[in-house]
Amino acid sequence: MQQIADHLGVSKFVVSKALSGKGGVSETTKERVIQAASRLGYFNQKNGYVKTNVSPGPQLSASPGKQSVLVLMPNIRFQNKDSLYWGKLLEGISRELEQQGLGMIIISEPRGENFMSILNPEGILGMVGVGQIATSLLLEAHRSGLPMVLVDHEDPLIPCDTVFANNLDGMARLTNHLIGLGHRELHFAGSSAFSRSFRDRWIGFRSALEENGLTPQGADDPMLKLEGVETGAFRDDVAAWIQRRKKARSLPTALVCANDAIAVNVCSVLDELGLSVPGDITVTGFDNIDDAAQNVPSITTINVPKEDLGQRAVKKLMDRIAYPGAPQEKIMISVESVYRNSSSEPQRAAGTARK
After folding, report:
1. Considering the chain, what percentage of its residues have pLDDT values greater than 90?
2. Record's CDD domains (predicted)?
């Protein structure tokens, strides 16, 4: 803490209050302290910042009373049990906990940074964090000393195990498939800044194009900055972009969407503009939610084993509880391509559309 204080030119007392989550320090100062602590490696020190509550070795059965796992899934970006994606992931967590004979406490609306104060840490084995979670909430859980595993999210300030679908390889495989069909004008649709998964999917798409001697769109392209991904509010922007490209005779032959929800909306917009899928433009998605199969045409996508992600997170948490000193892991779950009716060989020259 003294090193952090010297680095920032503040007192050790200020650093202590900022890292402990107590009041008396402005949000700006607290943020500076946290960032400095991360850069100086403070969060990675086993004896710094937090003391583990678990003894080394396989002690799970020797912890009577700790019979529940906390599942933190803030209801942002439609992360809830009714989601076609997140709901399946939650089912996987629930199923594995039931098999382990453990209960589940779901917190979806944490209020402030002191949400842990309403819980009895002695009654909780550990925590599984699902989806996008604010750093302040993760720090609060980290302060408690609970072992934790994050699913489909990671935070540079919080050292812990993570579980992801192999987004990069899955998107690269799908893009290579389209290139193999003959597509040379491919465009990514999504928001590379929306989540870690979206960013990895963009990287997989871009890498596949570059490996095949094709030039991906620039970082300033509007289709990489779609707003309202969760709600479909981007539809007007997509429609305007398609109309501009159609007028300029520069329509791509394939739109590779960051997820199925975007793909469903893109198919609808294209239909409204009189463009057929896949006749005029191939459209693909990612995740394999139910809506992708039910869409007309059904959408080519990547199947993410959502339930398996949840189950694997629980198993990793049990391993972490039993062996707290083991190296932290980033686990990648394999994904599979699902070819459906929204993709085909390009049936027109790039930039043109059927009349």
Report:
1. 59
2. HTH_LacI (cd01392), PBP1_LacI-like (cd19974)
Q: What is the mean pLDDT of the chain?
A: 86
For strands 301-303 and 254-257, give the pairing. unpaired
What gap in Å lies between CA 336 and CA 300, rounded to an integer? 11
Same-fold call for 1-49 versus 66-159+305-336: no
Q: Which of 120, 157, 118, 152 is nearest to 139 (CA)?
A: 157
Tokens of 90: 């939650």
Angle of helix 167-181 versus helix 196-211 axis, rounded to 10: 40
Q: Report the C-alpha gap between 298 and 341 in whole angstroms.
A: 5
Taking the alpha carbons of 242, 303, 100, 318 in that order, is the dihedral positive or negative? negative
pLDDT tens digit sequence for 127-136: 999 988 888 7
Each domain of the chain, given as residue ranges in start order, spans 1-49, 66-159+305-336, 167-300
Spatial CA neighbour of 38 closest among 4, 83, 69: 4
The residues near 286 (Cβ < 8 Å, ≥ 6 apart) are 167, 170, 171, 174, 201, 257, 258, 259, 260, 263, 301, 302, 304
In total, the chain counts a number of residues equal to 355
Which structure tokens are listed for 32? 């500076």
CB 97 within 8 A of CB 316: no
Nearest to 209 by CA among 148, 252, 241, 239: 252
Which CATH superfamily, name and number, covers 66-159+305-336? Response regulator (3.40.50.2300)
**What's the CATH number for 1-49?**
1.10.260
- HEC secondary structure over 48-70: CCCCCCCCCCCCHHHCCCCCEEE
Cβ atoms of 128 and 315 within 8 Å: the answer is no
CA dihedral 259, 263, 265, 266 (to 10 degrees): 130
- What whole-number distance in Å separates Cα of residue 42 and Cα of residue 19? 10
Please say if the pLDDT value at position 327 is more than 60: yes
Is it true that domain 167-300 has CATH number 3.40.50.970?
A: no
Tokens standing for residue 318: 């049990």
Task: Tell me how far apart the alpha carbons of residues 197 and 7 are, in angstroms, rounded to a whole number.
Answer: 34
In angstroms, the CA 53 to CA 107 distance is 21
